[in-house]
Amino acid sequence: MQRIALAISVSILVFAFVSGCSQGPLRATESSTSAPMIELDHVYVAPSLSASEDDVVQALRESGFIVDDNRNVFPDGVVGRYIRFDNAYLELLWLEPDATPIEQLERAFEWETTGASPFGVGLRRVPEAPEELPFPSRSYVAEWMEPGTEMRILNDEDELLAPALFVVPRYMEGFDAAEAAEWRAKDPKKAAKYLDHSLGVKMVTAVRIVTQPEGFPQATEALNGTYVEIVRGDEALMEIEFDNGAQGERKDYRPLVPLVISY
Fold first, then answer.
1. Cα 195 from chain centre
2. Is 130 left (phi over 0), alpha (psi -120 to 50) or beta?
3. How far is CA 64 from CA 130, 141, 233, in A?
4. Is-contact 66 194, C-beta < 8 A?
5. What is the mean pLDDT of the chain?
6. What is the DSSP code string of 92-156?
7. What is the pLDDT of residues 123-178, one digit of tens each?
């Protein structure tokens, strides 16, 4: 659980700095892209400003999700709540009434009027992948990170309305499917507490993010092989598919959250 606790603390920091980060230039290596080097780690979403945290959590729980009781409150007044799956996790973000976020963060939370994307995609390297990435990215290093590590930001600096795309360092990664299976085998009761949703979902098998044309990021090719797709549309929406849609069911959480799931 220590690894999960660390992983879920990173998204909001990315949410705040990804648009304005200038810690390093975009660069790419000459590595082959024949096999995916990254995979989905987590996604995050900011619900409607008119949707209270209690209402959103209640709606998700009533539909069969386990929403972690842990409520992370960050120094800038941002609150994170979490839903974990066997190969990824979902983070929901709110602003406290007295929050004083930076401009980029406030723009994203007010997505209904600003046109900014309320979504972010955190990626991780697959176990056998090298540290260097085969596509353009820029470095972010901060005091709170382990010495010698960096986060790689995929967004261009001027993509103020786009979904945040980033690759976390290995020590921040959430569980992958193999690690979740090991956790289930070693501590089934504790694993079930976080992973056994009554909805019957286990694995995230696809994510589709709809963003306004002016918020379409340039780094979409880097998502090839990650089961994450970003498309242009008239409204902000995240669609998450679980278990290849085996149950043939669908749930729509709008207008509370711009989220639709199929399972």
1. 17
2. beta
3. 38, 38, 29
4. yes
5. 87
6. EEEE-TT----HHHHHHHTHHHH----EEEEEEE-TT--SS-SS-BEEE--TTSPTT--EEE-S-
7. 999 988 898 898 889 998 878 788 999 989 999 989 999 999 999 999 988 889 99
25, 129, 161 from 32: Cα distances, Å: 21, 11, 30
Contact assessment for residue 228 and residue 166, using Cβ atoms and an 8 Å cutoff: no
| Cβ atoms of 111 and 117 closer than 8 Å | yes
pTM of this prediction? 0.87
CA distance 253 to 156: 31
Q: Which residues pair with 152 in a beta bridge?
A: 139, 167
Please list the residues that pair with 95 across neighbouring strands: 78
Is 30 buried (19+), middle (13-18) or exposed (0-12) by CB count in 10 A? exposed
What is the 3-state composition of the chain as percent helix, strand, coil, each rounded to the nearest 5?
25, 25, 50
Count structural domains, the chain. 1
Domain that holds residue 109: 2-26+33-262
Residue type, 117: S
Q: What is the dihedral of CA 210, 87, 71, 108, to 10 degrees?
A: -20
* DSSP secondary structure of 7-46: HTTTHHHHHHHTTT--SS--B------SS--EEEEEEEE-
By residue count, the chain amounts to 263
Residue 170 has φ and ψ, to the nearest 5°, of: -60, -35
Residue type, 94: W
Asked if residues 88 and 204 have their Cβ atoms less than 8 Å apart, the reply is yes
How far CA 263 is from CA of 27, 66, 204, 241, in Å, comes to: 38, 15, 9, 6
Bridge pairing between strands 259-262 and 250-252: antiparallel
Which residue is associated with the tokens 């549309």? Answer: 233
